[in-house]
Amino acid sequence: MDMLGDLESLQFEYGIQEEDRSWLYLQGRSRGLMIKACAHATFFCKLLCNLRESFHEKQTSSCPLTGLLTGIPDDDELKVGIIGGGHLGKQLARVLLQLVPIPAENLRISTRRPEALDDFQKLGIQCFYHNPYLVDWANVLFLCCLPSQLPNICLEIQTRLEKGCIVYSFVAAVPIARLKLLLNHTNILRPQYQCVGNFVNIWGANKDITAALQDPVILQATCPYSPAGGIILNIKWLEGVLYVVLNICTARDMPHLQVLQLLNELLLSVHFEDCEKDGASCPKFQLHDFVSQIYSKNLSQQRPFPWFDLTAVQLKETPFGQHLSASTALQDHLTYRYCDSFGISLPQGQQPGVSTGSDSQ
Fold it and tell me: Which of 234, 225, 243 is nearest to 313 (CA)?
């Protein structure tokens, strides 16, 4: 319930001159960007958690006594670090804590004002100001800082980044090529959002981000292919997510055939009703979807995928990008899987429209 709903003098719009009201849409756009950013980060972390659960299940099934006695190794638990305790950092922490969900002990925040995060510390989240220490611990690192702070942060952490640590940057003003140079690191994921002219504020004003992402209308507007709400995600992000999974499997020296089976289970195992009638038409990942035809012919069955430079994946054309743009069925299934991960069913025929915006604003 909005307790301020009938108190006009306390509303954001009160006192704004008529000639300035045309700019009020920027408030809704800012909220839409925040919701989309948190939604995509949540889906990404959910996918990584599911991946680690699959590793554990396969390990347990192949050696049941060992699995029962040892449980999941500490290295297999997703450990998420957030650099920046401002508005975005705090919203992201809440969403990851509640919707992934990531246990409080597996989420840490480094910020210049840790004393301002008392509510998070009461929940069991460690909050401090020591960026190198956070990087030593985390295997996924979210950058939620200001662009002006980024060069010094990169200088602090670049020598501490392990090859497999995933850096997920929300610093929109710093392009991924520049970030690669600042960090001397290639395992970087950076979503890009493009704002279009026909903005329609569907993002709500009074719900917190966590509640908003449980609203079917808002959640469907965050789908990777949805232009709803006037904000478009560059689909290169989705390519990057898939190649992140491949790199994690390569780090475990997993044969590429097992990796493809695992990807199909993680992302293409949820189907529309019509798929049950004609399962043969459902997409399946193949080796040549991710590497060139020449490379795939020379890759033996027991070899893992190569290690991919994620910055190159997001800047250049890839086999998977070509396959994804050409396959409407694959786009639909990935969209369906995205909504399903939030517990929302997307009926066939209601898939968001496809957009492949390439620039951020």
Answer: 243
- Residue 15, by phi and psi: left (phi above 0), alpha (psi -120 to 50) or beta? left
Which uninterrupted H or E stretch holds 109? strand 107-110
Structure tokens at 272: 């529309």
Do residues 41 and 84 lie in contact, with contact meaning Cβ atoms separated by under 8 Å? no
The sign of the torsion formed by the CA atoms of 243, 345, 28, 10 equals negative
- Token pair for residue 219? 């959640």
Q: What is the pLDDT of residues 132-171, one digit of tens each?
A: 999 999 999 999 999 999 999 999 999 999 999 999 999 9
Model pLDDT for residues 9-44, shown as the tens digit of each residue: 444 454 454 544 444 445 667 888 999 999 999 999
Parallel/antiparallel/unpaired status of strands 107-110 and 231-233? unpaired
**Token pair belonging to 342:** 């939030």
Integer-rounded Cα Rg, in Å, for the chain is 21
Distance CA 298, CA 295 (A): 5
Helix (H) / strand (E) containing 216: helix 216-221
Q: What is the DSSP letter of 280?
A: G
pLDDT single digits (tens) 96-141: 999 999 999 999 999 999 999 999 999 999 999 999 999 999 999 9
Calpha distance 68→59 (Å, rounded): 10
Neighbours of 263 (CB within 10 A): 20
Domains and CATH numbers, the chain: 26-236 (3.40.50.720), 239-341 (no CATH)
Rounded Cα distance, 306 and 316, in Å: 17
User: Which parts of 252-327 fold into alpha helices (H)?
Assistant: 256-267, 273-277, 293-297, 310-315, 319-326
Tell how strand 188-189 and strand 166-169 pair up.
parallel
Q: What is the pTM of this model?
A: 0.86
> How many C-beta neighbours within 10 Å does residue 156 have?
16
* Direct distance between the N- and C-terminal alpha carbons of the chain, in angstroms, rounded to an integer: 34
Locate 114 and state its tokens: 């840790």
